[in-house]
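quick one, 388 residues, struct below
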Amino acid sequence: MSRPRYVAAAFALATALALSGCAGGGTHRLLDAVAAEPDAILATHRILVVTTRAEAQDRKEVFGGERSVDLNFARVDVSLPGTHVPGRVEQPRSDARRDPARHVAAGEVALYRSRDGFARTLRDRLRQTDGRALVFVHGYRTPFDNSVYRAAQIVHDSGYRGTPVLFSWASTGRTVDYIYDNNSATVARDGLEETLRMLRAAGAQRIDIVAHSMGNWLTMEALRQIAIAGDRGLSGRLGDIILASPDIDVDVFKSQLRRLGRPDQPVFVIVSRDDRALLASSIIAGNRPRVGDYGNDADLASLGVTVVDISGVSAGDRLNHAKFADNPLMVQLLGQRLNEDDMLAGSRDDVSRRIESLAKGLGQTLGSAAEIIITTPLEVISIAVGGR
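---
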């Protein structure tokens, strides 16, 4: 590792540790919101949950960071405040209780004591959404409550119209537990594979996957297992696979792609060269480059994926690690892709026109001028957006 990159990575690690000390306070109680008037709520979304977490000792947390041998199932109704800003997950300071009039908050939570009961709910929801399902797999250092809030924010800000399913694996939510989280993600591979098969059995006609950070390792391993079993595309039900800021060793990722074979469905890899969280991960992993800040888009694209470089796009956090969800343009691009199937398809001019049109529609919420570089196996598309 070069000295400038090492210094930047060391700074990123120190920043991550500092942020972990003040983010979210000492508790992660999902069920701890004050009452709010209905007109103070912008929208409420029902998130279906499959998790490898064990139930928390504090019942208000619902699920904690310990691993469960069996899958657990739940549904959570999550509200967004009337003051919600696209890209943000509005949080209270320190240990203050959530106010649904100002914060993203959970209302009703239901636990399923049987797989069959959850499967019935899945079937009902899928019938209401034309068989479309979106599985969101969160990343490292994510407690259960934050995984639920992020899932609801993505669903709302993207305008997704299908059935949202959160797959939440046993992350402790602590920066110092990187190795534990990585092992928890590995343990959860079978659970994610089982979840995808459960969705197919419940009547899903299209299953899209959005994974973030370390959740990409888990996602790629589950897809690899499915491919080895001889059902790479889940009988044609697998839709888009969107890998945001993948915290995976580049060589490991290449080997996973080779084993999967050239994908039949679109696979998008979202990268950013200024991702400080991934710089920190590279130190922990022995100074090995991570996919999410890899410097050779064409190398990845040669394996059949589409690389979306958003290094020039502004972020909502100091680590630049969640741009896919906290930048208004990116989260709406995500929604248009998932809802319309063709946002990043077509000719160079057509793709540029679509993105520029969306950026203009966002107006002042977009921020400063930016450049998005899309590298496909066939061409490179550079799109300038934003500005005031």
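Confidence is low (pLDDT under 50) at residues 17-25, 362-366.
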